[in-house]
């Protein structure tokens, strides 16, 4: 299976660039070995879905990609992760700079208890992306448009972000994440707190975002993975069991565990 | 179904069903009722004790909020006031003369007894009036002068006229002198502003809380300036930056212990370190504030850490996720959200410090000081130590003044706690 993987990636390189390369990544929480030997190559301008049963390490691996795990005292990451060929765990890399480049959207909508405008403007401000107020206004508007929420909030930019509905909040969070012009967008179950309509909006959004970004999304919904992603990675008990084109994973999985999971027998 | 409505005993006896009047259920209800009654009794007991306490303080203290005065027509005699130094005039003689006008037939020894009705503050009041308005010299002026403590007590019915004469502080003739003034209609009992505008004095009718209020203010200010930044700094470091390991656990346990150390120990520490080693001035609010800061700091650290902990992790993740540094997360997001909780804890800590007595006694803030402190390094008392001094004084007038001072202190404490509650409810956030 490993060889097949290799061949396929080599084939694909010609068409799509590799954005993130992970080699033999191990993650430990204290003595708990949460990610075992994961190697994966994530393509640019592609939506990659991480699926797998609860507790298998999807979030953990996702959080390795923007070094969010650094904030957990007991967490230890080994191996090599590179974005555009640059090792992100290198001592010279500033995780703060990295996170501006690798945006993240969380499972639960978590807007700052500030105005809608300030929510979006915060990232560009701290990274000095705007020279003056009107530039900042432009950035905020562009981000809110990309987050597909501009029309709903353009008349109340100074209203608190926490006063929006759950779906609006999540789109606001997406707008906040894209406002810093990241190259990679990580989304950890972004729709789990949303109703079907809001989910539909976010999924459309993801589809648009892949024009510019490499999007990695963790989801528990097989249908969602099938709908939005081009590549799918199946995790099980800390291992990356299978990684392939989404279509192939869902129609013709190579591993029996993948098959059991997508047909609903494990997880 | 059976399990829901019957106890095991009920089930064994074959009783089932929701409506069956079941023994176990009734027992459970009785237990609940008993608990409720016990709880209510406890609250009632606490409320009664509080009421008794407040009632006794108020009933003995309210009389100190007025002070008996005499309205005297005083002749300001030019020949008794040296022109080069009007402050050294014989004002006592002028006040006495005005008073003795009401006793034209009094003999010499009677005159001595009569003039003892006047407080020693009477002449001072006339002097102050004259000094602020020199035009009064050579004219007649009406001045409201305070009477001395025993007559103040008599006027407020705190002195029992029915006691046998030898067990009274005033004999029959003295009472008669005062009654004559009352008949003349010159006795009044206006609000006792002296209580807040004067510093301490040996004479109850001249004693006030100004020195103690200013002393407490300086001490609390120093306490706040030291404990607030240090406490918040320590809490932020421990909560946000320090690695969780044995050392941090050890520090945490010790901070909790520090909060429980009896205040007298801090007083001894301050006596040895601040006064002994560093040679700082005795009785100074600066030292008092530093001592109180030692006690307030653990309270602030603990409440700040609780407030920081209460900020949801999702906010930190959100800020980290857009590339904020640890420093920006803490100072830009977490701290502002925790501020109401921090302020509440700080105010409660300061309210505790305001009422703290033992450490201040040890550093000498219970000295007899008759002027208000001009700076934090001047000798002063504080509210609780002033109460302690007055409670210890033999003069009858200090009994009600002690209670009045307690009421002043309690007013400040209630106001501070109300502010804390107000802040908490105003800035409470829902995420
Ligand atoms: N902060 C943490 N501290 C300790 N252990 C953790 C922590 N976060 C995750 N783990 C452990 O790491 C393993 C993987 O967890 P992770 O959150 O990555 O799973 P997941 O695949 O995202 O699950 P879910 O689908 O339920 O979100 C689990 O065994 C979990 O107990
Ligand atoms: Mg997860």
TrEMBL record, chain A:
Does the record's keyword annotation contain Cell membrane?
yes
Enumerate the subcellular locations listed in this protein's record, separating them with semicolons: Cell inner membrane
- Name under which the protein is recorded: Phosphate ABC transporter ATP-binding protein
Q: Please give one Gene Ontology molecular function term for this protein.
A: phosphate transmembrane transporter activity
Record-level GO BP terms: phosphate ion transmembrane transport
Query: Where is it predominantly found?
Result: membrane
What are the UniProt keywords, alphabetically?
ATP-binding, Cell membrane, Membrane, Nucleotide-binding, Phosphate transport, Translocase, Transport
Q: What SUPFAM superfamilies is this protein classified in?
A: P-loop containing nucleoside triphosphate hydrolases (SSF52540)
User: GO CC terms for this protein?
Assistant: plasma membrane
Against SMART domains, the record matches this protein to: AAA
Q: What does this protein do?
A: Part of the ABC transporter complex PstSACB involved in phosphate import. Responsible for energy coupling to the transport system.
Superkingdom is: Bacteria
The topology of this chain with respect to the membrane is: Peripheral membrane protein
Which InterPro entries did the record assign? Answer: AAA+_ATPase, ABC_transporter-like_ATP-bd, ABC_transporter-like_CS, P-loop_NTPase, PstB-like
Record keyword ATP-binding present = yes
The record ties this protein, via PANTHER family, to: ABC TRANSPORTER I FAMILY MEMBER 17
ABC transporter domain location: 20-262
